[in-house]
Design goal:
Layout (H helix, E strand, L loop, with lengths): L28 H18 L3 H12 L8 H26 L4 H22 L4 H24 L1
Helix pairs in contact: 1-2, 1-3, 2-3
Length: about 150
């Protein structure tokens, strides 16, 4: 993830070493693969949710330091889920279960919202980000349970 300082820089900085997984990190490649498979499976099955698995797994698996901001974790999860979501969408289209016209209506508003969220990400306190993430996840879960059993 490339993070810009308060001063805008014209060049890109290299990826921080904390995002690179090495044997020295002491983390099992098996756990990394398992989290990735689970995220891809859930995303492919449900159309969403893989990013949540990546976010929850990152703190336990990736070699982040104790000072790592949730911003870095959320941005990394998005970077991981972009190709996963693209593959899932292509698979849905090939199976004929994707309403491309309906999805197209969400693309532009989602791009605007995603851009606004990314711009706010670096301005919000880490604790507030955790609270927002938790509230959205809890609300989504509760609404799904109400719909399933209500």
């Amino acid at each position: 993830m490339i993070r810009h300082s308060k001063e805008k820089t014209a060049h890109r900085r290299p990826l921080p070493s904390r995002f690179l997984i090495s044997a020295a990190s002491g983390k099992s490649p098996f756990l990394l693969a398992l989290a990735g498979i689970a995220a891809g499976f859930v995303n492919g099955l449900l159309g969403a949710g893989g990013g949540v698995i990546i976010i929850r797994s990152a703190a336990h698996i990736l070699p982040y330091g104790s000072k790592t901001s949730p911003r870095d974790v959320y941005a990394s999860a998005l970077a991981v889920m972009l190709p996963v979501s693209a593959i899932s969408a292509i698979s849905y289209a090939r199976l004929g279960v994707w309403d491309g016209e309906g999805a197209a209506r969400f693309i532009l508003p989602a791009l605007v919202g995603g851009t606004a969220g990314a711009m706010l990400l670096d301005r919000l306190h880490a604790q507030l980000l955790r609270l927002i993430f938790s509230a959205v996840a809890a609300y989504s879960g509760i609404m799904m349970l109400v719909k399933a059993f209500g």
